[in-house]
Design a protein that fits this description.
The chain contains 2 helices and 28 strands. With 335 residues, the chain is mostly beta strands.
């Protein structure tokens, strides 16, 4: 488990030469040990979380689209406009929006107060991005920014003029639609155990934004899922458990409770952020007389197994089955 509090994370500031673009952000994933813009193989996490802030009249970056990266915004406070494709949509506190690859977007503060938001993005290994307003491009890895010059397929391959054809006409880059939802419009799902030891209410943001439950991108889902969870006073979200591949990040929004791990009990409250990589078991519990509310972000590995140390059982998410292991011989059932 890795733990940090929002108050301890410095604000990073950026601005363009003329000041047209200006923003600040707290790089939460870096504070939790991630290497910036890196995949798991290079020391990163499967998704990154930032808390950003825009001053009135400002946008943090130009209008752009990604070829591979997904970005999800949640407006915490303030108001503004989300420019997407050829449209502009007014947004305010409680709005969430998902921009899949190919969805051009830009968040602009059009209000009178600071605009505060959470931004979740995955970390594709390679990526090209496009800036429609200035018709320039960039790519990862490398980070170079350039303008495209259309040439014939054989340009530079044959020096004889007879083989040179006119450059093809420039086509507009097609736009992928974005998805929008309001938190208060997302129905709450109530999950509880028969004896009430485990209980919570969940608003599944990713389902409201067009995702498929527990499904990766190849199965029609998103590379990460978001949900708001209200844990019943005195209850736990679920039993003490570990994941074989899944990462879970908790941002505690209100109330108080504890996080149980092999390292002990950690008291948590508003502003605390906890990251659980695959492997170590964990459990989130609300205080006896107070609900605990949190934002939970998880990735969607293609295969996933859980282990429950208190009851010595295992679960296969792919099959939706829970079982206990019975020891047997290696060749049992093979001959």
């Amino acid at each position: 488990m890795k733990h940090v509090h929002l108050d301890s994370i410095p604000w990073m500031e950026w601005t363009s030469p003329s000041g047209k673009f200006h923003g600040t952000g707290q790089q939460i994933s870096e504070a939790l040990g991630a290497v910036m813009n890196a995949t798991l193989a290079h020391g990163g996490h499967p998704f990154d979380l930032e808390r950003g802030k825009l001053k009135p009249g400002k946008s943090g970056c130009p209008f752009h689209r990604h070829s591979a990266q997904w970005e999800c915004y949640w407006i915490i406070s303030g108001s503004g406009v989300m420019r997407h494709g050829d449209e502009r949509r007014e947004v305010r506190a409680g709005d969430v929006m998902m921009h899949p690859p190919g969805s051009a977007h830009q968040l602009i503060n059009t209000g009178d107060d600071d605009l505060l938001y959470y931004l979740v993005a995955d970390n594709p290994m390679t990526e090209v991005w496009h800036y429609p307003d200035s018709n320039k491009w960039g790519f990862k890895p490398g980070g170079a920014i350039f303008r495209r010059q259309d040439v014939d397929y054989h340009f530079g391959e044959d020096d004889t003029p007879e083989t040179q054809l006119p450059p093809p006409p420039r086509d507009a880059v097609p736009d992928t639609p974005a998805h929008f939802a309001r938190l208060n419009d997302i129905p709450e799902e109530h999950r509880h155990s028969p004896k009430g030891r485990y209980g919570s209410h969940c608003r599944n943001i990713s389902l409201a934004l067009g995702g498929i439950r527990d499904a990766g991108v190849q199965q029609g889902g998103h590379p990460f899922d978001l949900q708001i969870r209200r844990v019943t006073a005195g209850a736990a979200i679920c039993p003490y458990h570990s994941h074989s591949m899944q990462w879970e990040l908790f941002v505690f929004l209100s109330g108080h409770g504890t996080v149980r791990t092999p390292e002990g009990q950690l008291e948590v409250g508003p502003g605390d952020i906890v990251l659980h990589p695959p492997g170590p078991p964990h459990q989130t519990l609300a205080a006896k007389n107070e609900e605990l509310e949190c934002l939970i972000i998880t990735d969607n590995p293609p295969e996933e197994w859980c282990y429950y140390p208190d009851s010595d059982k295992r679960g296969a998410r792919t099959h939706g089955k829970y079982f206990r292991i019975t020891e047997t011989d290696y060749f049992d059932g093979e001959e």
